[in-house]
Amino acid sequence: MVVWQQLRRVLPTPTAVVDSRNGFYIYWSIQRTEIREEWDCLATFVKDTLSGIIDPTVTCDSARGSVHHKEGLLAYDVELGETNDIVYDTADLTSAFAAAEKGIAIAKESILAQIPDTKVKKSKLTIISAEDVSARIEAIRHLSVGTFAVPETPTKVAYSKHNDYLRHQDMAEFLQLPVGVATECVLHQNKPGHKSATIYAPDNRADNWRYICHCQDKPLDIIGMVMALADCTAAEVYRYLDCIYGVSISIPA
Question: Is the pTM of this model over 0.70?
Answer without folding.
Answer: no
